[in-house]
Design goal:
heterodimer, A: about 140 residues, alpha+beta, two-stranded antiparallel sheet, 4 helices, 6 strands, about 40% helix, globular, B: about 160 residues, three-stranded antiparallel β-sheet
Chain lengths: ~140, ~160
């Protein structure tokens, strides 16, 4: 999904996509999950969806799941026009947020069933092949 | 599925093997994107995120809430949230104010991973290898630098200097 986000947006917003990727890498390698970097509360209660806080002049929104205190699972996103107040008003964002929300619920269910989890070092493990079906995406 | 005595799923040997061997995936799309990075802009991003992280960590160390900090520095809490978002372009005046209130060193700090300085409890200081900067400069700045916390930062290489 993250790759799709890059491919879909790097043509129109190359600098911003590069910047988002850099920030993700810095969170992962250097600074950790500092709550203030993120806006939480996208999606339904319990889905733990986050986005980076908007930068001045930013156009893009990328959704991800905060899983535990060490791991984020990247989703996709898209352009959020400045004249739209909520992502529900933007079909692509609405779709991507719902999709990553579904992923979050699926992973939480798998975690409860002992089929998926987070290691001490923050890496993830799974005994199930979570398949991405393009039809789910449409 | 087998359950343990607390009714949780039992971890089988297969699962343990998977847990210990996480897969790493290499993506050409991400690799190609990273070739487009601009070093100056990368450093700006790192500086903003690093300053935010240091201020956030310092607030936690002091047990100070964002609202308390906002009151002390004479700003609205929303401004503090913006500072801590990792996207803010701080002015030198703002940094000076934060430095005074939180008793933290922000000016002498370069956000690069290779420019971290830590001070031990003994009379020796540990200085990592930095880019084109003389160790003596750090020695001059020791008094201020010693107040800053480098917790969680990586020391790439260390060497010892005696204090005069």
């Amino acid at each position: 999904m993250y790759e799709q986000f890059i491919q879909a947006n790097q043509h129109n917003f190359e600098k911003e996509v590069v910047n988002i990727d850099e920030r993700l890498e810095m969170v992962g390698n250097d600074y950790g999950l500092i709550q203030e970097y993120f806006d939480t509360g996208s999606g339904r209660f319990g889905q733990n969806l986050c986005t980076f806080k908007d930068r001045p002049g930013s156009h893009l929104r990328l959704y991800f799941i905060e899983f535990g205190f060490k791991t984020i699972i990247l989703g996709s996103g898209g352009e959020k026009p400045k004249d739209k107040r909520t992502s529900q008003e933007v079909p692509i964002l609405d779709r991507e947020r719902n999709l990553i929300g579904l992923v979050s619920e699926t992973l939480q269910k798998a975690e409860r069933a002992g089929e998926f989890g987070i290691n001490e070092d923050g890496s993830i493990w799974s005994t199930t092949n979570f398949k991405y079906d393009k039809n789910d995406y449409e | 599925m087998k359950m343990d005595q607390f009714g949780r799923p039992q971890t089988s040997n297969t699962i343990k093997t998977i847990m210990n061997n996480p897969r790493k995936i290499k993506s050409d799309i991400i690799t190609n994107l990273r070739k487009k990075r601009n070093p100056l802009e990368s450093q700006r991003t790192r500086t903003s995120m690093s300053l935010a992280a240091r201020i956030s960590n310092r607030l936690k160390e002091l047990g100070m809430s964002k609202i308390q900090f906002a009151e002390k520095i004479g700003k609205k809490p929303s401004a503090i949230s913006r500072w801590l978002s990792g996207t803010h372009n701080f002015t030198s005046f703002t940094l000076s104010d934060i430095q005074e209130i939180l008793k933290i060193n922000l000016f002498n700090y370069s956000a690069g991973k290779d420019n971290v300085i830590t001070v031990s409890s003994s009379d020796k200081i540990i200085v990592n290898v930095f880019n084109n900067i003389e160790p003596s400069r750090y020695l001059e700045e020791l008094e201020i630098s010693s107040q800053s916390s480098a917790e969680g930062m990586q020391i790439i290489e260390t060497c010892d200097y005696k204090l005069n």
